[in-house]
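The records we work with from here on pair a chain with its fold. These numbers are not coordinates but entries in a learned vocabulary of local backbone shapes. To see the layout at work, look at the sequence and tokens printed below.

. . .
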Amino acid sequence: MFRSEYADVPPVDLPIHDAVLGGAAAFGDTPALIDGTDGTTLSYEQVDRFHRRVAAALAETGVRKGDVLALHSPNTVAFPLAFYAATRAGASVTTVHPLATAEEFAKQLKDSAARWIVTVSPLLATARRAAELAGGVQEILVCDSAPGHRSLVDMLASTAPEPSVAIDPAEDVAALPYSSGTTGTPKGVMLTHRQIATNLAQLEPLMPAAPGDRVLAVLPFFHIYGLTALMNAPLRLGATVVVLPRFDLEQFLAAIQNHRITSLYVAPPIVLALAKHPLVADYDLSSLKYIVSAAAPLDARLAAACSRRLGLPPVGQAYGMTELSPGTHVVPLDAMADAPPGTVGKLIAGTEMRIVSLTDPGKDLPADESGEILIRGPQIMKGYLGRPDATAALIDEEGWLHTGDVGHVDTDGWLFVVDRVKELIKYKGFQVAPAELEALLLTHPGIADAAVIGEYNDDGNEVPHAFVVRQPAAPGLAEGEIMMYVAERVAPYKRVRKVTLVDSVPRAASGKILRRQLREQQ
């Protein structure tokens, strides 16, 4: 068993809004949130006051403890206000991908039993359709403004009393993001107030922040990585978060230059752009102090190329998963120059790890031998919503979460992730479940069988590659038609990027698809 070298931290038994904004009064007029597109700025005092007013309005509307509110928005300065207002009113927040189709959104609404939606006007049509399909939604609110819908701006004028809700941080769910886990279709991950808040305290010694630090929030807040690294962690410590709604390279580089960004938390595709794109040379990025990459594996050579070009310490990495709130490993900021290339970091405080044999799952392996990574700690999720069997399949009776990732630890405690047991595809950090795409492909009348694997393209992104068996009655079904069929029915990041027509899909006697065999053929 491997244990963290950092001192344990006590559980943080606070509601997440208090754990993050408890110091807001001390930070006062310090900028908390800046819109990177138009410069709109909210101070810590305003964030604290505004989220309390919105919480009062939500409570007056009927939001109660145990309710679920769906937050369906790209990054805006209003996103944190909506999140903390909902939790202060006693609700759990299920975050929704802004590019989800109405059908995908409806599944999440129905599964989570969400009664409220907060969205933005450009996404209203999707939200309305999703609400119709799911049923049970009482009201759709907007962060900006739209005819016929109340906005968060309107709610700031509420004179209702601030809600006083008895929250049990150890049991009550603060966030309900959806994850495919190690395989299968998306499931609601129940993260309690204590789990999220304690994970912030665990990460702080390795990833400190303070007033004067400026973090660029380009990765989405709806994703647990963005929610933790770009929203909760910096706002807890008085840093300034500059918010961008999406990644556009010119806008991204201009924001670093104009807002004097000091800290970047990104995914590998952004590291690739910083390392190779000619536009980078046109901007002053000298304010940057460090870059951390997570959400997907980062090639060590690419990381080195990026740091050389920008004259920074080597790009650090971090490791975790939604079910882990999400962090378990990170390269400490003060050790980036000394960390071995390719490592995803060291165990954070209060976290234990085992590396177990792939052929003998009960056998623990020593340093420098690769096996499946198992994690135990206070940040492990409460469970999957309404899916006790799926929870039990992931977390064993001794509390070890089986990550499905393969890795090894060197003698100094650095973790290296080398492969995946799990079938999940990570496209630009977003989870794509092969089983979900396979089920969709099989709804096409011309497809007899299908299998999907992840395959790396020329840009280093893992993309869905479908192997398709055509029905005898559809000999003319073409690859492009298959890709278009999927593209019309899923969010853009889930699209099949390559199709290979085959005579059969390799399967085990149990019927399980032999994806490893397909990978070896490629």
